[in-house]
TrEMBL record:
Family matches, as PANTHER family: 7-HYDROXYMETHYL CHLOROPHYLL A REDUCTASE, CHLOROPLASTIC (PTHR31332:SF0)
The organism's taxonomic lineage, starting at the top: Bacteria, Bacillati, Actinomycetota, Actinomycetes, Mycobacteriales
Any Pfam family: FrhB_FdhB_N
Signal sequence, start to end: none
Location of the Coenzyme F420 hydrogenase/dehydrogenase beta subunit N-terminal domain: 92-168
InterPro entries hit by this protein: Co_F420_Hydgase/DH_bsu_N (IPR007516), FRHB/FDHB/HCAR-like (IPR045220), FrhB_FdhB_C (IPR007525)
Protein name: Coenzyme F420 hydrogenase/dehydrogenase, beta subunit C-terminal domain
Domain Coenzyme F420 hydrogenase/dehydrogenase beta subunit C-terminal stretches: 176-345
Sequence segments annotated as region (Disordered): 57-84
C-alpha cells in the first residue's frame, strides 16, 4: 500500500509545510500540536481533497521524489548528479567580505546577499523567507520581504517550525515574482505545489535552499531559553546563532530576551539539547528525509563545517549551484569584491555534512527497516530499508538518537505543564550520557579493528 498524506499525519510525521492546505484552498487546516510542531488536520476532509493534498505532501508516495522533481531549470537538470549533493554546478565555500555584516548572519551571509542581489537586479519583486513573527503566539514565521533593508533585517537561521500556508496563499494571488527560501522538504513541497498550481509556478522564480540536518520543534527555542533563565511564558525573542570573535564559528552562543527585560546569552554547546548530534526536539518527519542539500532548489547554502574554515569565527558558507543565473550573480559579486568564493570538491562538500548524511543514509535505512518490521507504514525513500546497513554499535546509536528526539518532545511538554525545567533536563541528560557511552564504544571498536593484526 502506498504511504499517503493520511499515513504521514497519522504517524506524526507531518512537517507542517502547509502545501496541502494551499492545494485544497484551505480545506485542510493546520494545527499546533502538543509537541510544538505544526501538523495538517485531516478530520472530515473529503477523499478528493485528500488526493489533491497527497500529491503535494513531501512525505507521501503520491508525490514525486527529489530525483523526479530534479532541479528547477533544464540547465540545472543537465548538470552532473551526485547521490549526496544532487545536481551540482559550482561547488563553493565563501562568505561576505564585511566582518560587520557577517556578525548579523548565521554563516557566511551569502544567502541574504544573494536574495538582496535578486531584488536589486529586479529579477524578483519579493522574497519569501522566515523572519521574526509579528504576533505574540510565535517567535518566527514565514514572511514576505520586498526591500534590501528588510532582507538584511531578517537574517540568521531560525531553527523553529513555520508553515508556508499563508505566504503561498498570498503569492498565488498577487502576481508578484518571488524567490523562496526553505529547508529541503519545504522546497520540495513548494516545487510539487508549483507542478499543480499554474499561478504559483509563474510566481516563484527562484528556490533558495538551506542545507538541513533536521528541523526543530518550538521546544528547542524554549528549552534553551529556559536554561539561560527565561521561562517560556516570559520569552520574547531568541537568537540561535550569536557569533563570538574569540571562538570558532561552530562554537556559537544562544541568546534569549525576556519580555520587558534584557538579553541573556550562553554558549549553545553548554546547554542540554544544544548539540545537534543529540537530535533534541527533532520532528519525526526528519527521520524520513533523504535530502540534505535541498536537491530540488536552484542553489543551496549551508555551513562549511570543514577543518580549514571551522576555526574562523566569521562563518563560511558551503554553496552548491544549479542555475546559471545564480552562477553569474556569484561571479559578479566575487569580481567586485563584495564576496569571497573558492572552489570545493564534491567530496569536500559532502564531508562538511558528514553527520547529516549519515543520519539520512545509514540511519534512514535502519529506521525504515525498524518501522517495517513493526508493521508501520513508511514512505518509499531513495534509501533501501536495511537494519544491517551499520554495525551493532552504530545501530544502537541510531536507535538511541531516535528515542531522544521523541522523548525530548514529551519530556519538555511535561516540563512546561508542570512549570519545572528539571522534568526535561534530568531524563534528557541521562539519555545523552547513554548516547555518549555508545559513541565512545563505537570509537573504541573502530580503533581496535584497525589495530588488530591482519591474518596472512
Ligand atoms: C532547520 C535548519 C537546519 C539546518 N541544518 C544545517 C546543517 O545541518 N548543516 C548546515 O551546514 N547548515 C544547516 N542549516 C543552514 C544554516 O544554519 C544557515 O542557514 C545557512 O548556512 C545560511 O547561512 P547564511 O549566513 O548564508 O544566512 P543568513 O545571511 O543569515 O540568512 C539566512 C536566510 O535564511 C532565511 N531563513 C532562516 N531560517 C529559515 C527557515 N527555517 N526557513 C526558511 N528560511 C529561513 C532567513 O530569513 C534569511 O533570509 C540549517 C538551517 C535550518 C533553518
Amino acid at each position: 500500500m502506498p504511504h499517503t498524506i493520511s499515513d504521514t499525519v497519522a504517524r506524526g510525521m507531518c512537517i507542517g509545510c502547509g502545501t496541502c492546505s494551499v492545494a485544497t484552498d484551505g480545506a485542510i487546516p493546520l494545527v499546533l500540536t502538543r509537541r510544538g510542531l505544526y501538523s495538517a488536520a485531516l478530520d472530515g476532509v473529503t477523499e478528493q481533497d485528500l488526493e489533491r493534498a497527497s500529491r503535494v505532501c513531501p512525505f507521501s508516495d503520491d508525490a514525486p521524489d527529489e530525483d523526479e522533481l530534479g532541479a528547477p531549470t533544464p540547465e540545472g537538470n543537465a548538470l552532473p548528479l551526485d547521490p549526496r549533493l544532487g545536481h551540482h554546478g559550482r561547488v563553493l565555500a565563501g562568505r561576505h567580505r564585511s566582518d560587520d555584516y557577517l556578525l548579523g548572519s548565521s554563516s557566511g551571509g551569502l544567502t541574504s546577499w544573494l536574495l538582496d542581489q535578486l531584488l536589486r537586479r529586479e529579477l524578483v519583486d519579493a522574497v519569501i523567507h522566515v523572519g521574526r513573527a509579528d504576533a505574540d503566539d510565535a517567535l518566527f514565521q514565514y514572511t514576505i520581504t520586498t526591500t534590501s533593508s528588510g532582507v538584511t533585517a531578517q537574517r540568521k537561521s531560525q531553527y523553529y517550525p513555520t508553515t508556508l500556508r499563508d505566504v503561498l496563499d498570498v503569492a498565488r494571488r498577487d502576481g508578484r515574482r518571488y524567490a523562496l527560501v526553505g529547508v529541503p522538504c519545504f522546497i520540495k513541497a513548494a516545487r510539487q505545489l508549483c507542478r499543480e498550481d499554474d499561478r504559483l509556478r509563474e510566481s516563484i522564480l527562484f528556490f533558495v535552499g538551506l542545507v538541513c540536518g533536521h528541523m526543530k520543534s518550538r521546544f528547542f527555542a524554549e528549552s534553551l531559553a529556559w536554561q539561560v533563565g527565561v521561562p517560556p511564558e516570559h520569552l520574547a525573542a531568541v537568537d540561535f546563532r550569536v557569533k563570538n570573535p574569540a571562538r570558532a564559528s561552530s562554537d556559537y552562543d544562544f541568546a534569549a530576551t525576556a519580555r520587558g527585560d534584557g538579553v541573556v546569552q550562553r554558549r549553545t554547546r553548554a546547554l542540554v539539547g544544544g548539540n545537534w548530534g543529540h537530535g533534541a526536539f527533532q520532528p519525526e518527519a526528519c527521520n524520513f528525509c533523504d535530502d540534505v542539500f535541498a536537491e530540488t532548489a536552484d542553489v543551496v547554502f549551508g555551513d562549511a563545517w570543514l577543518p580549514q574554515y571551522a576555526a574562523d569565527w566569521r562563518g563560511t558558507n558551503i554553496v552548491v549551484t544549479r542555475n546559471p543565473v545564480v552562477d553569474e550573480i556569484l561571479s559578479a559579486g566575487a569580481a567586485s569584491g563584495d564576496i569571497e568564493l573558492e572552489p570545493l570538491t564534491v567530496d569536500e562538500a559532502a564531508r562538511s555534512q558528514a553527520g547529516g548524511l549519515r543520519h539520512r543514509r545509514d540511519g534512514l535505512a535502519v529506521r525504515l527497516a525498524d518501522d517495517l518490521a513493526a508493521g508501520l507504514s513508511v514512505p518509499v525513500k531513495r534509501v533501501r530499508p536495511d537494519a544491517s546497513a551499520v554495525d551493532a554499535n552504530r545501530l544502537a546509536l541510531v536507535r538511541q538518537r531516535r528515542r531522544m528526539s521523541l522523548m525530548s518532545l514529551d519530556w519538555f511538554a511535561s516540563a512546561r505543564a508542570q512549570h519545572d525545567l528539571a522534568v526535561y533536563v534530568r531524563p534528557m541528560s541521562a539519555a545523552i550520557a547513554r548516547y555518549r557511552r555508545l559513541e565512545v564504544g563505537g570509537l573504541l571498536t573502530g580503533l581496535l579493528t584497525k589495530l588488530r593484526p591482519r591474518r596472512r
